[in-house]
Amino acid sequence: MPDYIKPELASQFVANADFQATGEIKLTLSGYYTDKRKLVVRDELLAQTSPEDAYTNRGRGRSLGAEILARMQSRRFFGWIAYSISRSSRVDFEGDVRRLFDFDQTHNFVAVGSYR
Q1: What is the tens place of the pLDDT at every residue in 11-25?
Q2: Alpha-carbon torsion angle 103, 95, 43, 45, nearest 10
Q3: Where are the beta strands (DSSP E) in the chain?
Q4: Sequence-distant (≥ 6) Cβ neighbours of residue 101 within 8 angstroms
Q5: FRET pair for 3, CA 20 to 30 Å: which of 11, 28, 70, 76?
Q6: pTM
Q7: Are 55 and 41 in contact (CB under 8 A)?
Q8: 16-22 long-range contacts, CB within 8 A, separation 24+
């Protein structure tokens, strides 16, 4: 990246709560919001006259999501399952329509287990 590109900035807010469902199962609920500023974007107009200077810090974005995590630990088994839902969107230039980030992943499910 060229020298004139500055670091992107973000502020993130997270809240979570833990619940002991049983002696072996613990649940965690989490929610988050992230505000993103100075995102790097490619300016097509600048690219026509000076391709090496086509990147600017004009973008902004946000992410909003929640997750539920269930963990189980017993004498012989450890595992967890997690489901998260989120939305990450951005505006590259003032006046543009808000769009999803290129790699936005709305739903995510993970399961891990280990038996001894």
Answers
A1: 999 999 999 988 899
A2: 140
A3: 9-20, 25-42, 55-73, 77-91, 99-100, 107-115
A4: 61, 88, 89, 90
A5: 11
A6: 0.78
A7: yes
A8: 21/70
